[in-house]
């Protein structure tokens, strides 16, 4: 009987131990696999959060910089638009600037249209490339035909255009804005170029060829020397005197200014024309010389016009200052 009791207690104790061990295992398993524990003890979670935070900050900074740049571009664009509108409105409100802009726009549009539409009768089926390709060649052919038909008139027209543009360049060089040029002054210079320079130069180059008919090596330097002494002195004097009369100045003032500027103008030409005339008399054919000379004269007319108008403006300012001083002295009380 006692043996049975011992055996039963042994079985109960072993079963209880097993139940305790299983309960411990289930507890450890429940602890290990419980969601609260795994959520609280996930590895590397803080490091991932610490990596995500600076990335988000960098992206936010980039977005802020991009927004600032866009705002700057928009502000700059609006400022440019406002400047364009203000300049356009100022041109419209200023009658002189509006008239000058109309002249420049009209003349430029007419010139470009005439140059590009030289072959408009043959444009059927032409591409834009073909139009631009043949326009220079056919304009040159038309110029040569005009020289054969009426050489004096063609050269007068070219000189008038060159002298007008040259005076405009001179005014801009003196500091005037692009559309605030003196129309009367530009017209005077263009009139002198059209009426005198084109026609006189045509006959001068023919006279120079008759004066030096030889083809020896010394002919080109002789023509350059003759051009830069005799002809330059004559033409500079004509240009200066005619412009003075067109400004309605007195003869004494005109010739006084001519004596003061004659030698500086002549020596200023020696810095440019001897090198250009080596090509004029050595390479360029007779009928094409004035076109080459007019291209170079865009620089020379700027110098001539600057010399002529600076002296006139200086004299006018001196006269005004003298008149003011005389008027102020006349207002002083007499002793």
From TrEMBL:
Assigned GO CC terms: cytoplasm; membrane
Topological type in the membrane: Multi-pass membrane protein
Bias-annotated ranges (Low complexity): 326-335
Renumbered residue ranges of the record's region Disordered: 312-335
Compositionally skewed regions (Basic and acidic residues) per UniProt: 312-325
Location of the protein in the cell: Membrane
InterPro entries registered for this protein in UniProt: Mpv17_PMP22
Keywords tagged on the record: Coiled coil, Membrane, Transmembrane, Transmembrane helix
Pfam assignment, any one: Mpv17_PMP22
Coiled-coil residue windows: 56-83
UniProt key word Electron transport: no
Family: Belongs to the peroxisomal membrane protein PXMP2/4 family.
Official protein name in the record: Peroxisomal membrane protein
Native species: Solanum verrucosum
């Amino acid at each position: 009987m006692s043996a049975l009791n011992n055996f039963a207690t042994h079985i109960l104790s072993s079963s209880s131990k097993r139940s305790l061990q299983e309960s411990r295992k289930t507890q450890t398993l429940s602890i290990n696999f419980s969601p609260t524990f795994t959520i609280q003890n996930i590895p590397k979670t803080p490091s991932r959060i610490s990596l995500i935070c600076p990335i988000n900050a960098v992206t936010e900074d980039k977005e802020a910089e991009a927004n600032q740049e866009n705002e700057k571009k928009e502000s700059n664009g609006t400022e440019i638009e406002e400047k364009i509108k203000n300049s356009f409105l100022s041109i419209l409100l200023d009658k002189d600037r509006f008239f000058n802009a109309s002249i420049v726009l009209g003349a430029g549009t007419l010139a470009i249209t005439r140059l590009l539409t030289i072959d408009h009768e043959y444009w059927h089926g032409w591409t834009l490339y073909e139009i631009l390709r043949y326009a220079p060649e056919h304009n040159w052919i038309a110029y040569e035909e005009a020289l054969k038909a009426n050489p004096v008139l063609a050269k007068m027209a070219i000189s008038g255009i060159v002298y007008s543009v040259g005076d405009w360049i001179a005014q801009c060089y003196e500091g005037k804005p692009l559309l605030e040029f003196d129309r009367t002054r530009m017209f005077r210079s263009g009139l002198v170029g059209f009426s005198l320079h084109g026609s006189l130069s045509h006959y001068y180059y023919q006279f120079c060829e008759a004066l030096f008919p030889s083809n020896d090596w010394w002919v080109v330097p002789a023509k350059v020397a003759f051009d830069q002494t005799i002809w330059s002195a004559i033409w500079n004097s004509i240009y200066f005197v005619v412009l003075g009369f067109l400004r309605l100045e007195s003869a004494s003032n005109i010739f006084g200014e001519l004596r003061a500027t004659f030698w500086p103008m002549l020596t200023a030409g020696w810095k440019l024309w001897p090198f250009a005339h080596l090509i004029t008399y050595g390479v360029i054919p007779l009928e094409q010389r004035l076109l080459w000379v007019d291209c170079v004269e865009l620089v020379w007319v700027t110098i001539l016009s600057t010399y002529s108008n600076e002296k006139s403006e200086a004299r006018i300012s001196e006269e005004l200052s003298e008149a003011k001083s005389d008027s102020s002295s006349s207002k002083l009380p007499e002793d």
